[in-house]
């Protein structure tokens, strides 16, 4: 069964969040890295609205305008993602968001929606 939980790699020795994910800690060199649940919270660090589609790629035309953003997780890492669950013009830098894991076939996609 699939679990919708955002996990981040943490160093077991020094607790550093190992981002981008790799099998060792860049802070202390430990090879003990363990994936642990993240809070799922973050804030919009930067974003753009992609309104291009017409005449460019029909697939995107069907999707409509969408937000591409960097979200800074509460644990520190910044992830490239999409903001969903609100109008594209309502997104703001610094806006609090929460993780939303969406599924497309076998893939799980990490996106974010405005926090309530
Ligand atoms: Zn470490």
TrEMBL record:
InterPro entries: ChsH2_C, ChsH2_Znr, NA-bd_OB-fold, Thioester_dehydratase-like. Residues 35-102 form the ChsH2 C-terminal OB-fold domain. This is Nucleotide-binding protein. SUPFAM superfamilies: Nucleic acid-binding proteins (SSF50249). Pfam families: OB_ChsH2_C, zf-ChsH2. Gene3D superfamilies: 6.10.30.10. Residues 3-33 form the ChsH2 rubredoxin-like zinc ribbon domain.
């Amino acid at each position: 069964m699939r679990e919708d939980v955002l996990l981040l790699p943490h160093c077991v020795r020094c607790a550093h969040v190992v981002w981008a994910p790799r099998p060792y800690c860049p802070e202390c060199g430990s090879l003990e890295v363990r994936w642990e649940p993240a809070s799922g919270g973050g804030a919009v660090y930067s974003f753009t609205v992609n309104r291009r589609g017409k005449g460019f790629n029909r697939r995107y035309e069907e999707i409509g305008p969408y937000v591409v953003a960097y979200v800074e997780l509460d644990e520190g890492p910044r992830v490239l993602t999409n903001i969903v669950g609100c109008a594209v013009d309502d997104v703001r830098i610094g806006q609090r968001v929460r993780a939303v894991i969406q599924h497309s076939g076998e893939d799980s996609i990490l996106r974010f929606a405005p926090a309530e």
